[in-house]
Structure formats: structure tokens, C-alpha cells
Amino acid sequence: MEDPRETLDYSYERQLELLQNVKRGVAEVTSSKKRLELQRVKLVQNIDKLEGQARDAVAAGREDLARLALERKAALAQQIEGIDREIADLEKQQEKLIASEKRLSTKVEIFRTRKESIKAQYSAAEAQVKINESVTGIGEEMADVGLALERAENKTEEMKARAEAIDELMEAGTLEDLTGSRDEIDRELSKISAQSNVESELARLKAESGKGPEKAKTVEEGTEERKGV
């Protein structure tokens, strides 16, 4: 997948290269104009010199030399006119290049600002996507955990219901308590033994109070003895 941040950086580098080319163009035009201006200064100096030579030749009666000096002066004047035109053209080019440089520099700066803003937004969106993906994964995992908990709770409720049902059946006598240490016979024998103990205790108490069989037998024996006497 193409990273738009890399594309933006590449476009920005290309614009910087174009801006540097324009700046070099401005520098070259400025340098060329400067050379022409220096050349023009020298030509003007030569013209002034030829003007002086022509004057001296006329004063000396040498019209031929004066004419030669003036002819050279005229040729130099034509060169100066050509240089002036070239300088004027270079000045126009310089102005255009400087204006282009300013416009391009402004565009590059605007692009740089937008580029950094877009890159920041993309990075933030990318981070948000990663976070959302992580949260989604956690949510799915928690959903699975929730289902497992729900199943465990349902099974627990089922086991509790079964335990309560078994307790009710055992209390009703429908089911034997297999967890006890004695069976039904043991329980019945225990009841008989307990009942026998109760009867023995009752007989003892009756005997002690004079209402039991032993006491009655003793009373009868005493009565018979008195009758025999």
C-alpha cells in the first residue's frame, strides 16, 4: 500500500528543486547583466578617450586621425546601444524570474504547511485505526468470554436445580440416601433397640415407684404370708 506521506515528501522535494532552479536562473541573469554593465562602462571610457583624440587631431591639423577616431567612436557607440538593449532585456528577464521565484516560494511554503498537516492527520488516522483494530479484537475476545461465563452460569443453575430436586425426593422417601453409613435395616434395628431401652427404663421407674410388676409381686407374697398365720 502506497504511503501518502512519502508521496507528499517526494512532491515537496521536487518543488524545492524547481525553486532552486529558478533562483539559479535569477543569479545567472543578474551576473550576465553585471558583466554587460561593466563592459558598457569600458566602452564609454573608450568613447571619451576617442573623443579626446579626435579633438587633439583636429588641433594638430590631422583631420585624417580625427576622422579615424570619430569612426571608432561611432562603432563603440553602436556597441553601447546593443549592450543597452541586452541589459534592458536581461532586466526584464530578471524581474520575471524574481516574480516567479516569489510566487513559487510562496506556493512551496503553502504546500509544505499543507503537507505537514496532511501527514499529521494521516498519522493520527493510522494510529486510530490500529487502536480500533486492537479494541475490536479485545471486544471479540470479551464476547467469547461473556458467552463462556453465560454457559458456566447456566450449568451452575442446572446443577443447583438437580441438587434441590434430589433433596426433595430424598426427603419424600422416594430415593434412598446412599451417602449415609447405614441402610434401612440398620435404621429399623436402631429404632427397636431404642424402643426396648425406653421400655426397660419405664419398667425400672415403675418398679421404683411401686407400680411395677416386681413391686406388685412382693405385695402379693406378703399378703399370702399374713393369711397363713
Automatic annotation (TrEMBL):
State the residue spans of region: Disordered.
197-229
Keywords carried by this UniProt record: Coiled coil
Q: Which residues form a coiled coil?
A: 33-107, 142-195
Signal peptide from the UniProt entry? none
Basic and acidic residues: compositionally biased ranges: 201-229
Q: Which family does it belong to?
A: Belongs to the PspA/Vipp/IM30 family.
* Name of the protein this chain belongs to: Phage shock protein A
- Organism of origin is Methanosarcina barkeri MS
